[in-house]
Amino acid sequence: MRKVKPIFVATSIDLDFLTAIERLALHDIQALEFTPDLFQVNESEKKRAADLASPQHGVLGLIPATRELRLSWSGLKRSDLHDSHAESFHAKTLPRLYTMKTEILKVDLASIGISETLLSQPSWIDTWTLDEDNTSRDAASIRQAAQGLRESDIPVAFPTETVYGLGADATRSPAVQGIYKAKQRPSDNPLIVHVWSLRQLRNLLRPTEPEHNETSADDPIPEIYTQLIARFWPGPLTLIVPNPTDSRLAPEVTAGLSTFGVRMPRNPHALALLKLADVPLAAPSANASTKPSPTEAEHVENDLNGRISMIIDGGPCDVGVESTVVDGLTSPPLILRPGGISIEQLRSCPGWEDVAVGYRDNSELNSAPRAPGMKYKHYSPKASVILFEHTRKMPSEEEMVQIVQKRKTIGVIRTAHWTPSLGLGKTEHAMVNGASQAQTCNGNREVVDEIQKIKRFEIAKTTLSISLFEIELGTQAGIIAKGLFAALRSLDKLNVDVILVEGVDDSLGDVSAAVMNRLRKAAEVKVQT
Is the entire prediction scored with pTM above 0.85? Predict the structure, then answer.
């Protein structure tokens, strides 16, 4: 065992003890000493602390001390700390100090050898190769991330066409556990597996057999998916497939289910990373659990800075909401999560004419989730969200008085029908919030900048005195989908107290349905009539 250097931290009763332990458990902590009388911990908290002190979390022991909280660790270099010279810290600074460095790697597509021309060729899916520029720093960044995925247990964030994903080797339990730790995600929520080829998927579906040339009769991919794969892969479509008894996947990927979700992303950065790593990647959205999904590298950094080591920056995502999840193993086939592929598109494929909706817009807390996003509250900013269904008129001034109460700052996301400032005031000034200046690799930066323009209104009435920050997403479902999560995050950065959202008609198509599905899961209050 390597020699560890102790760090002495002055304790304080205003530190949340268990929060500190959980944060430290993300790293290779070797010993922890604390002064029990400074922390008012009950028996359940002691048990939880003891569980966190187990070797699987890296903490080898909780040892009573007399005066101070004493921490010793290995695996972190002094350069990994924000303050490289300090040896004594106030306990309140622990969440800030005990973090790894998170590096953002901007990668230009031209350097990694994948083009839209290649992606449009129908025969490329199992035959493509990378034509890397070995002298390029960008290509080196992708190779560095791929090596980390093969050899490290720390997940890597990368762009897909839907949202940014947080990837780890799906075949190694410690690596997959790294996802749950970084996101602070419940472990009974299954993860979607990402592959770069059909050969890789077939190997997962028959893990104990040697590789050989597959025939149609021998193909372990369920036949019901043949037409979907031919038409929609690579793309924003996740398929529920059977998990073999002797599975290669880490058990944490499936959360105890007999099936798992798999997709082949269309984003060139994701495909290059998958091929270079040459391992299937478990990859949920790269946000802190329950928070809005990230559609830019900046969003990932805001949530996971200090919890992961690398973020590949490929610019804003194309779709803006997660993949459609379908289950063809049931009769009739079901859509478990709406997303980038519509029900009309699915019904145009043989065998999918009768596909039905198998999801609810509310969290399904009392059942095991069959797909990600079905069980827990998701997509929520720090501020409370009040969703007005599309059939509901814009709130009146009297209703706003009831909504606002003691709140001082209000966020509003408008779509089709609401008037600016809810008809309450005049524009003070316009601002652009949270739009980074990085050049996009996929042409979406102009759209994202446009939807992130925020108008500020100062409302000064006898019954209502508030600052109102407003984002207009427009009427097109695709633009709303691209801008929704970014809008929630932009208003959150302004520390608004509550966000009012004008809903859209979810009968207009699956992108609209996906938008409303995410909003209903994010909202604390839903106003329908």
Answer: no
